[in-house]
Design a protein that fits this description.
This protein is of the alpha/beta class. Helices cover about 30% and strands about 15% of the residues. A 3-stranded parallel beta sheet has the order 1-2-3. Helix 1 links the parallel strand 1 and strand 2. The longest helix is centred in the middle third of the chain and has 12 residues.
């Protein structure tokens, strides 16, 4: 469930490849659980990465990724 973004709520952003997961591989279940625990603790949580959304979704636990994070920044820094 998407939460209301309150002014002053801390935001934590994570890079995907090389931080939450080995590049192009699935993140460990502990990393996915960490994101959930941070949200439960009241933080806004998001990811940033150069990969497309489908890749990020596959790396971080499946099709409900948008409902488990507050922000998803895909294809960040990609130039054509």
């Amino acid at each position: 469930k998407r939460r209301k973004k309150e002014s002053g709520t801390p935001l934590i952003l994570f890079d995907v490849d090389g931080t939450l997961a080995v590049p192009a591989q699935k993140a460990a279940p502990e990393m996915v659980a960490l994101l959930a625990r941070l949200r439960e603790a009241g933080f806004l949580v998001g990811i940033v990465g150069a990969g497309d959304f489908e890749k990020q979704q596959g790396q971080l636990g499946g099709p409900d990724l948008r409902s488990r994070l507050d922000f998803v920044f895909s294809e960040n820094g990609v130039h054509s």
